[in-house]
Structure formats: C-alpha cells, structure tokens
Amino acid sequence: MGGEQIDDLIAVGTPCHGVPPNVNASLLNILGYLYFPWWASPVQDMIYNSKFLDAMGYQASHLVDYYGVGGDIGFMVGTPMDFNGDGVPATSDGLVPTESPYLEGRPLYVVQGKAWPKGDADHVSLIAINDHVHRYILDHLC
Ligand SMILES: [Ca+2]
C-alpha cells in the first residue's frame, strides 16, 4: 500500500515526534503506587530524535492529505514541546505530547480540555474517537 491508495490520513494522538525519555518518571510521580510493567515503557525508537524517528522523518508524503490531532489536558509529560513551530509549547494528552502528531506544514488540530471523567481530551478518549475528533474527521472526509 502506498500514497496512491490513501487519500486522507488523520493521525490521532500519534507520536510522530516521539515521547520524552522520562515519560515513565512523569507518570510515576502521579501514579507512584501503581506497578508499571516493563512493556508500558516507551521503546528507545519512540524517544525524541531517535534514529528511527529521524529516519522516518517529520514530513508527510505529498501524495497524502495528512492531518494530525493532539490532545492537551495540561498534563506535563517531560518538558512542554513546540513541534509545530508557532512559538507556543504544549503539554500532553496525558501520554503523548500534544504536538507530537504534527508533521511539517500539515494541519494540527488540538483538542483542549480535561482528562476523563471530567473531560474527553485525554489520549484514550482521543483514540476512541470522541465527539471532537469524530466531527473533525467527518469535516475532512465529507
Ligand atoms: Ca506549538
């Protein structure tokens, strides 16, 4: 499968720029009483500027209309990052840095709010396609 078979690609909460190396430490500060299994740790390939991510690149194919969607619940996962270059660093959706789904020159839709159960802007709510994401997808596919 290639770009010729894909018209629109909407990446929701996808860590295109990766995650910080201390994501576990950030979570453990809050959830310190929970056991974190080894497989819940980010692999080295998903750490910012890993060889893998750099090789993948931070640009979408010109054959595909790419849209990134990130969540911002104000939860600090590492240092706030400014991947879209607007000068404004953002926090995270509770797991993935807000602007990590951004690819150069492509739209990034940020859902701001709170984590479940007070809101639906957290990582799991985004990838479960909450109402904001559902409407965004329909707007771009219709
Ligand atoms: Ca930014």
Poorly predicted runs of 5 or more residues:
none
What structural class do the secondary elements suggest? alpha/beta
* Largest beta-sheet characterization: 3 strands, parallel
Number of domains: 1
Number of helices in the DSSP assignment = 4
Strand content: 5-15%
The hetero molecules present are: calcium ion
Radius of gyration over alpha carbons?
15 Å
* Span between termini: 23 Å
Number of strands: 3
Mean pLDDT: 88
Estimate the global geometry from the Cα principal axes: globular
Strand/helix succession: EHHEEHH
Which strands sit side by side, in order, in the main sheet? 1-2-3
Share of helical residues: 10-25%
What does this structure look like?
- With 142 residues, the protein is an alpha/beta fold.
- It has one domain (8-141).
- It has four helices and three strands; from the N terminus they run βααββαα.
- A three-stranded parallel β-sheet has the order 1-2-3.
- The protein starts with 7 loop residues before the first strand and ends with a helix.
- The model has no long low-confidence stretch (mean pLDDT 88).
- Residues 82, 84, 86, 88-90, 99 line the site of calcium ion.
